[in-house]
Here is the input.
Amino acid sequence: MDIASSPAEPEENTQVADAAPPPHAPQVIHREDYLAPAWLVPEIALSFRLGVEETHVCSKLTVTRNPDGNGSDVLRLNGDQISPLVVKVDGRAARDWRMDGPDLLLELDGERHAIEIETLVQPVTNTQLMGLYASNGMLCTQCEAEGFRRITFFPDRPDVLSTYSVRMEGNKARFPILLSNGNCTARGEGAEGRHWAHWHDPWPKPSYLFALVAGNLVANTARFTTMSGRQVECNVWVRPGDENRTQHALDSLIAAMKWDEEAFGREYDLDLFNIVAVSDFNMGAMENKGLNIFNTRYVLAEPDTATDADYDAIESVVGHEYFHNWSGNRVTCRDWFQLSLKEGFTVLRDQLFSADMGSEAVKRIEDVRILRGGQFPEDSGPLAHPIRPDSYQEISNFYTSTVYNKGAEVIRMMRTMAGEERFRKGTDLYFERHDGEAATCEDFVRAIEDGTGLDLGRFRLWYSQAGTPRVAIAMRHEGDTAILTADQAVPATPGQAIKQPMPIPLRVALFDRETASHSGERLIVLDKASDTFRFEGCPRPPVLSVNRGFSAPVALEVERPDADLVFLAAHDDDPFARYEAMQSLIVRHLIRAVSAGLDETGLDKTGREAGRDAVRQACEAVLADEALEDLIRGELLILPTVAYLSEQLLVADPGALHQAREALKAWLGAELLDSFRALHDRASAVPFGRDAAARGARKCKAQSLVYIAAGDPAEGARRAFAQYRAADNMSDRQSALTVLCGLDVPEREEALADFHKRHEGNALVIDKWFSLQAGSFHPRVLDHIRTLAQHGDFTLSNPNRARALYMSAALNPKAFHDASGEGYAMIGEIVRRLDPINPQTAARFVPALGRWRRIEPDRARLMRAELEEIAALPTLSRDVREQVTKSLG
Ligand code: 0A1
Ligand code: ZN
Here is the structure.
């Protein structure tokens, strides 16, 4: 332990600075410096006099000395941009309090004290959307991770659990609905048009789970009876006028409550469950105890305004937040380094829920696409970190795809190795052992070990090592035995030069190429740098299907001829493996194409058309297979993104990759035009429905239209415009508009104008209007983005709108990686302009620029220059500063 973390007079703090930091150097918080709190807060009573301009907060804490603390007399109450109006100890004005930066420190000599503090906050000026803020005239809170300290002074750390009583009082006409955590215990009218409500939450919780909402809201209500017979009132609260778009969210909630009882034995523990939709929100949603607050995006849906993907996302986010009630709230995190304890596990739980509600295979394919598109690049870049990070400057920067999605993959691997039933024993033990506690990732692993009987000794490396392992596999055949050799290497990442091999569970099947069948799947665990595995009973050299179901989050390099991949794409009985074979074929072809320097039409002068022909053959098989569900067919036809293709190369030329990908799309579109036409016609004849067949048809309609437009733009425009006009649902309307957006045809403007007029006033649909244009591959996409930024509907202060335009641009290889550097400049400028308004959202744009090291030198220079320009700003938030500094490395 360094000097600064063991001061002469020790005091508790999870946030200990590095030794003697120079002035203005960022504070780095280290996992290993964790100290238990010296003081606990068993109870808190909060009283709010609500106003949009000003809200008065009175907080009464009961504090007790922590028997497991270090005995310090100093009580540290965190604050952020607030100052105390009143500080009382045991009923008397306190004199011996002092400020330490933003925090308030009190010296206490007894065992138990009553502390009273008053503060004043200004919700209307809170553009960061952390703490108490105003959105569309209503008041709401966001406290995770460190927002509570923007409301009142408190030990704002997840290992301090308190029972909350809340009094809210405000103007009844302005705030007819008053909500907080737990149950409403009393309400009444006051003088001058005011009213009040008392809320009490019987479950002790950390401050990050506190919430309140006040505003003009209406509810869609349902009742759920839990497995022990408890009646729960479930409400989805929205602004008046939106209530007819809440049924899917409410149905998803009821389904999630039932599913968690069956799949994990988890029962809801209050009589009330509220969800509130707000239109200004930094993230997707928040699991505050009994009062989930959601981005409207993950609540509001009806067929005319939401796509099938929107419906799925709502189901999954509603499930995710609900599942947190156990994985996160009943068992919470000891400190923020343990974030994956609740997030990785809850993502796995929501993935399993969605798989059970719909198609397991499709869900798996989508989840792996998300992992590869977002997490793999993170793991190979300057911001790489283990799922349990070792240090941070700003915790908001660690709500990452690594902590969430890789975190889920790591727990999924334990489930794969244990089997479903044994895994359930492990999770039962975890919940039983740690209910009511603030736990660690180590506690979770130990419970799974004890409950399943698995030895997870080396497996713990998945928590401490960053980087996506690369696994090279080769197979040879001798007599009737196939011998598989596997080698793994975990790449170096910032701060972790040397890595150890990790246990990697791989589901394997060997196909007989004549019968197109296998004699059963085997699970092998590669836990050394290199190993061999023998498979007997193979009279002929088999076709290898490996990492089926994506059993491990690794990058595989398998020595396999194209013909074997064509075979698997057509015959593998694991739909994920079919998808994987298609992707491998396409990736292989495109990487060869850019390395060989193909011409514009994709014709290979050096005789490599064979790879492209293999892709065509596989596509043909997918198009012709009548036994295949349309939902899967649609997935199999999606080309890998440029981001994923770039991951295959040490240094990528995104312009060349984009061109090669577009050329392949156009070639396939032209070669298989008749099949794509037939698919588009057949799918268009299926009437609207929310069943799997109709959804599958819509997915195929969208994909076939993409290929038709690539192969024959004139026909594509005709069909897309007709589809747009005939659409009776948003999925069809959006997929038609997506295609039109990329074409330089008059129908484009007509459809865009119609779309805007038709959906004017519906913020979520207008977001789509922005994001479709910014995400298109239109030749003048950068001009379009610049024009859209001047549109009357555009604002930087609403995170959904800012992301609709600029995140779509940052993720669009054509716009972002334009050789002129204009895309980089645009994103750089947005970071600089957004930082003073909303640093959390601003920081999310930095990683796109941070990938410069893996991009060809001309573009890399331009990307780096943008980062340097951001870094040169005199004032920068901690959020952006951390991301930019690490990206410049
Ligand atoms: N715990 C939430 C994610 C979340 C995190 C931070 C926030 O602050 C703006 C908001 C939400 C979840 O996993 O759903
Ligand atoms: Zn979560």
Residues 1-33+759-889 form a domain with the Zincin-like fold fold (CATH 1.25.50.10). Confidence is low (pLDDT under 50) at residues 1-21. The chain has four domains: 1-33+759-889, 34-323, 331-464, 470-552.
